[in-house]
Fold this sequence. Notes:
Blueprint: H1 2-8, H2 10-18, H3 25-42, H4 48-62, H5 66-82, H6 89-108, H7 117-134, H8 138-155, H9 170-173, H10 179-196
Amino acid sequence: MAAHALASSTDELNRLDGFAGDGDLGITMSAAAKALEDVLVANQQAEPDELLAACGAAIARHAPSTSGTLLATGLLRASKVVQQPGGDVVKVLADAFQAAQEAIQARGRAAVGDRTIVDGLQAVCTSLQASSSAGLRLEEALRAAAEAASTAAEATAAMEPKIGRASWVPDRAKGHPDAGCAMLAIALRAVAEDAGA
Length: 197
């Protein structure tokens, strides 16, 4: 489960964020994970769109940092996509991630190549779209998306940050993966492992 994986990665996310940020991403994601777990317990019969919206609202309330706000924004936008009926589940997932990426980009004013979570989201969107076109099953699509997120996170280590606090100290960021991208990779690996279990 993604929430458990994020909570278990608190120290690692704080460490990565500490190279060029506030060093509190792990704390924020731990709070977000607790909020997600509470929402999942309280909304076991909810439709996917209602569940995503509830998750977004809970993170906005309980993890109101920059990263928490961006994550909440992405989930809320994704919830509007999954409420549309029918369609292949991998295609719906690809569309939901695309909507989340666009919302996060608009809110955070980051672009692909700025060394942010947007780089990871772009890789995931590309992977899911390819999986949908290839007719892959959900489990296969999730594994490929998790791999794409991990590869994107590793690639950010060689990128120069162009936005946010990291852009103030680009030399400190170099050589270390972007913490937001790493967080996305951790969450998706957990989801893929759970789906394949």
